[in-house]
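ARCHIVE RECORD
Type: protein–small molecule complex
Small molecule: iron/sulfur cluster
Source of inputs: curated submission
Record status: active
Notes field left blank by submitter.
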Amino acid sequence: MAADIGRGKALKKTSGCMPQINCEELNLVSGELSGVALMPKKPSVLMHACCGPCSTSCVERTAADYALTLYYYNPNITDREEYYLRRDTLLHFLDAFNEEHKDMYTVGYVEGAYEPDRFILKASPLADEPEGGKRCDLCFALRLAETARMAKELGMEYFTTTMSVSPHKNYDKIKALGLALEEEMGVKFLDIDFKKKNGFGRSVELSKKYGLYRQNFCGCDFARYAAK
Ligand code: SF4
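STRUCTURE (tokenized, with ligand):
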């Protein structure tokens, strides 16, 4: 079971085949890889992961081409139990995926701080916004900015997010935020709309394959109770 160890700190080994990641180790691995002529260095990507099911098809699509690390940072999941259930579902998927692909590559994992108060403080004035409205814009911005910041801290080349796999998430908004952060932070935004090429349908298939819990609400209590 992974521990919630706070923003910017390394995650200890979670389970099974999950690697330990921290800045120094990342540099070391990168250095070692670049010294091995038969293993061309893949671009490093910090992929914000909103949950296990959404991550499945995004990871499948990119893991062969990028040195991928997932970043679980979701202060918008205001219910603590739900937050950890989604985190553990993500780790379950990642363990299984890494085991399946252990001869080819390993996807890393870093866990951010759980800070729902940060989200609630910002989002409460927008409590009555519909899903897809201004509260969601703020929510995307909060999670993407933290992902860009962490990517920079880890010395990664790109950042991106699994959020775009959802048909409910507007990719134009995510892309605009990503490109603005690229400019501001000096880390490149990996511009992939994961819902394309049947990304969402594939995430449903893969969630079944790996036996993942699939939530029926986006994340925050504002949306959860509005739907009831
Ligand atoms: S509905 Fe989803 S995207 Fe919108 S604010 Fe809530 S958790 Fe964030």
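CURATOR ANNOTATION: The CA atoms of residues 77 and 84 lie 9 Å apart.
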